[in-house]
Structure formats: C-alpha cells, structure tokens
Amino acid sequence: MTTFTTAESPFKSDHTASGRCGFTLMNNQVGEIIAEVMETKDNVTITPLPSMIRVDATGRMDVVYSEIDEAAGEEEGWFNSAEFEENMSTHYGRMIHEDDRTIMFANPEDAAEYIGFDLQAVK
C-alpha cells in the first residue's frame, strides 16, 4: 500500500498582524489620478495591474480630497467619499470617511477615537 503526503500549502492562513492597510481602484482615469496622488506619500506603495490598481500603506493612510481635486484639475469639492467609493473596488484595514478625507488604519485600535470606541476594559 502506497502512502501519499500532501505538501504544505504556500497559501495557508496567517493571522499575524501585517501593519498594513489599503484598497484597490478601478484602472480608469479617476483611479489613475488617485494613484498618482497617493504615490507621493512616504508610506504608500502603488501596484498597477491590468484591471485594477493596488494602493497599500504601512500604518495609516489619508486620501485627502482636495489633493485629488487639484490633481484632476477640478474645482474644490468635486472629489468626495462618494466618488472615492465609486472608484474603489475593495479595502482592508479600518476605513473612516470624514468631510475632507478618507483615513485608512492598519490597526483598528488606532481608529478608536474616530468611531467612538472605548478601549478601556469593562469590569
């Protein structure tokens, strides 16, 4: 009788914190503009793919709407959370929308003050 063994999968789960957050964008004109602006940030990495653009960051990432307005040559207020959501496919990390920006956090506890979450243990 032959015994078979299965090799360990390189795609196994890893539950350790990555310290990263990010989102994917549609690879269109608005997605390109967002990626160009985000590429100027120190902790952000842009990965262009055929049908989407990955935007990944370490720690925290702010998508400042006025920066996107300026890069697009549009009037202030053109880019907002609705426009961002329309061009974003998915995200990972905690996402907070404010009036002037969307903030992404790698660590959910860092978003506590924005979402009214109390980090004190209940006794």
Q: What is the strand tally?
A: 7
Strand order of the largest sheet: 2-3-1-5
Q: Number of domains in the coordinates?
A: 1
End-to-end distance: 59 Å
CATH topology: Phenol Hydroxylase P2 Protein
Tally of separate helices: 4
Low-confidence stretches: none
Order of helices and strands: EHEEEHHEEEH
- CATH level-4 homologous superfamily: Monooxygenase component MmoB/DmpM
Radius of gyration: 18 Å
CATH class: Alpha Beta
Instruction: Give me the secondary-structure category.
Output: alpha+beta
Strand composition percent: 25-35%
Give the overall shape.
Answer: flat
Q: What does the main sheet amount to?
A: 4 strands, antiparallel
CATH architecture: Alpha-Beta Complex
Task: Give structural notes.
With 123 residues, this protein is an alpha+beta fold. It has a single domain, classed as Monooxygenase component MmoB/DmpM (Phenol Hydroxylase P2 Protein), CATH 3.90.56.10. Helices cover 24% and strands 31% of the residues. The chain contains 4 helices and 7 strands, in the order E-H-E-E-E-H-H-E-E-E-H. The chain has helices spanning 29-38, 65-72, 81-87, 112-115, and strands spanning 20-26, 44-48, 52-58, 60-64, 88-92, 94-97, 101-105. The strands form 2 sheets. The protein has a 4-stranded antiparallel sheet. The model has no long low-confidence stretch (mean pLDDT 90).
